[in-house]
Fold this protein.
Amino acid sequence: MKAFIFAGEHPANYQHVASVIDSLDRDDEYVVCFGNKVPDQRDFEYRPGVEGLLQRISSKIGFVRNKFHWEDYELRYRTKKSKKNWEQRCVAIKSNLPWIPDIAIVVTPNQGHTKNHVIPWCQRKKVPILSIDHGMPTVRWPWLGYRKSIMACNANAVWSEVCRSINVQVGASEDLQIITGSPSIDPISQDLMPELRNRLGIAKKAKIILLLGTHRSELKVSNDEAFEQIIEKYGENREYKIVYKPHPVEMSKNEILEVPEYVITVIEQELFIPLVRNAHTIVSPATSVVVPALALYRPFVNTIPLILDVISMEEAEKLKQRLCNAVFPISLMDEVISGAAKIDREACDQAFAKFGYKKDGRNGERVVSLSRWIAMGQEPSKWKDTMY
């Protein structure tokens, strides 16, 4: 199989394809391209006013200027052809490929260069496209409208049954939402960074309070308020060490919370799973970040308010039922941090089954298997997961 993998502008997106690349057979060939620096959020969003209107019109009729520059991207590949013999022109990345791919695998088909250039090029070349769903919606948020379409892709590899059902609820084709689990959580199957504490300068006995940021304005206020309370109360307590990891999109928007110097701020996405593994307590909205916490049985404090205008009471109740009492409300934050509130491992297993599918480290293999199936011209909905 020959795969063209375009992970998008943000370097954090590499987490969604890393185990996919590792799962390819020795005879498979691939070219992978992803951003090497945090992009400006304006690269994804329409600008206000007349300029934004013109951008929308241009996008609708397919006239979007190709702003691809290789200095903003990293290229990795494994192919039988030497680089000088790559002769298949790919205008989307302003260079050649060694072949016309059997399949394209993308991460962000709803935005940026993937939407405006990579997917149209694949359509012209009749290359099937598989999207890897880059997030796990735990509830039907009002901003999920873009999921009603899989942006011209032939199928969407989703995290779990909950993710599939929510995508379908907002209008996505049920037959094209294929459950593979997320490759981004494959690292939970083993400890790949045992030296994490030394790397961050954290004492062996210190209990890590991990604060995971959000870029959603509807959730950010209550989330940041909780962070500030924790920092004020525990920040200088030597029994604990607070680590703040902002969301990659928060960095793109330049909305990172200002924290004291005794709080460790981590921006490297590859540290996310190792931080979850080492955490004593995790504090964040119960969105996709809850999935690895459930898998690793880490106490998770949910900062989503009990009363939230952006979802109905029915949706709030669905979230509560799906979480199976595996996470703690913000009102129990101190009890969780002190250790008085204990994690329910059975509840974690039940919740993970709803949100995360499998934690065997083989989700990348499942995506590769689905990719082969689609590349052979088979119907995505008839693919079967045979990895048990």
User: Anything to note?
Assistant: The longest strand covers residues 29-35.
